[in-house]
Design brief:
Blueprint: E1 6-9, H1 27-36, E2 39-42, H2 44-47, E3 59-61, H3 64-71, E4 76-78, E5 85-89, H4 95-112, E6 120-121, E7 128-132, E8 138-142, H5 145-159, E9 163-169, H6 177-183, H7 192-206, E10 210-215, H8 239-247, E11 251-253, E12 274-278, H9 285-294, E13 303-307, E14 326-328, H10 331-343
Parallel strand pairs: 1-2, 1-12, 2-3, 5-6, 5-9, 9-10, 12-13, 13-14
Antiparallel strand pairs: 4-11, 7-8
Length: about 350
């Protein structure tokens, strides 16, 4: 009997990935890999599509900091049937925009049957600010992180939340050149880096699943919006995909925690067969951790597959870090490689020429 074939799909956020750098445009890649893998592990940047989402029963929705801890072997993933999602709304959100998000949450309860707690407002505006690096990568800061953590703690302790959704008010900059480029499918998502900061803070503090949806005023109608950016043009909120993802996000477990007992479905880093990542974005913590297994000679070593056509603003190829990787030109080629790996085939056997076996000196 073979063990489940497990693949991790990573497209880092805020670095302008040509696939996965926009509004849920990596979802087709995730759907395809989910057909090859028994278990797909990926993160909100891949699966979130604003008001669009897709149910992948064998996919695990894992926030970026949690994915880093999993890859390092510090945390395990425990699949669940259902989470009770707590909703945090930034006090800085205007009343009308707040109502739009509450209606989205109620719609998710009524039409999708999701289990949400009562919502909570932060006791102070979060005051999110955005920054851009010289490489065009984006990040952000929160002026009142303690307010965010206090709200999460109340939802966990008083409402029994087992996952946290956050909606923070983000700055509107409808006239900026960067936003116009992004809407045309050419730039970097200016808010993605700050979103990661928010979710990382809660996951690191409470070790619960978390994801973020920005509160922004609707953009002026533009007939030139690119298809990869179009999901963000559909309405007043990006919350639905976050609630859907969190509803079945796996819980994080530690072998060292009190009362810990290993369960049959628990997943650990050494269960991962392959990691698929853009070829120029190999400097992240998760890829670095998985690469330690990739250099091993054991049969359980994780294969790192880098995709050349998914270009990013982060020029960090695997060879620059000494990472052993198999480079492919496209996600279509990556899928073929995953199929051969799952089947236990040497991919060279599918090519017309194969060299003869060499000999080793005793």
């Amino acid at each position: 009997m073979t063990r489940p074939f497990t693949v991790v799909l990573i497209v880092p956020t805020g670095i302008g990935a040509t696939i996965g750098g926009y509004a849920g445009d990596a979802l087709p890649v995730a759907r395809a890999i989910a057909q090859v893998a028994d278990c797909l592990i990926t993160h909100p940047n891949v699966l979130n599509g604003a008001q669009l989402y897709w149910n992948l029963p064998n996919a695990l929705y894992v926030e970026g900091y949690g994915l880093d801890q999993f890859a390092a072997g510090h945390w395990g993933l425990r699949p669940v049937h259902q989470n009770r999602v707590g909703l945090i709304l930034d006090r800085g959100i205007e009343a009308d925009l707040r109502l739009r998000h509450l209606q989205a949450a109620d719609a998710a309860r009524a039409t999708l049957g999701l289990d949400l707690t009562e919502y909570i407002l932060t006791d102070a505006p979060l005051n999110v600010s955005l920054q851009t690096a010289s490489s065009s990568a984006t990040w952000g800061t929160i002026q009142n992180p303690a307010s965010l953590l206090r709200a999460a703690e109340i939802l966990i302790q008083k409402a029994g939340a087992t996952a946290i959704a956050v909606v923070a008010r983000f700055p509107d900059d409808t006239e900026s050149e960067a936003l116009q480029r992004y809407r045309q499918g050419q730039g970097v998502d200016q808010i993605a880096g700050a979103e990661a900061v928010i979710s990382h803070l809660i996951v690191r503090t409470f070790r619960l699943p978390c994801a973020h949806a920005p509160a922004l005023l609707p953009l002026p109608l533009d007939s030139d919006v690119a298809p990869r950016s179009a999901a963000e043009e559909l309405g007043h909120t990006f919350l639905p995909c976050v609630l859907v993802g969190l509803s079945r996000a796996p819980q994080f477990v530690l072998r060292s925690q009190a009362g810990f007992a290993l369960q049959p479905g628990d997943l650990w880093a050494d269960h991962v067969d392959a990691v698929v990542v853009p070829a120029t974005a190999c400097g992240g913590s998760a890829v670095m951790s998985f690469s330690q297994s990739a250099t091993a000679s054991s049969a359980t070593a994780t294969r790192i597959i880098t995709v050349q056509e998914n270009q990013t603003t982060m020029q960090v190829p695997p060879h620059a870090l000494g990472i052993a990787a198999t480079q492919v030109s496209s996600y279509l080629e990556a899928l073929g490689l995953l199929v051969t790996q799952r089947a236990g085939l040497n991919a060279a056997a599918l090519k017309p020429l194969m060299r003869s076996l060499g000999s080793l000196e005793p």
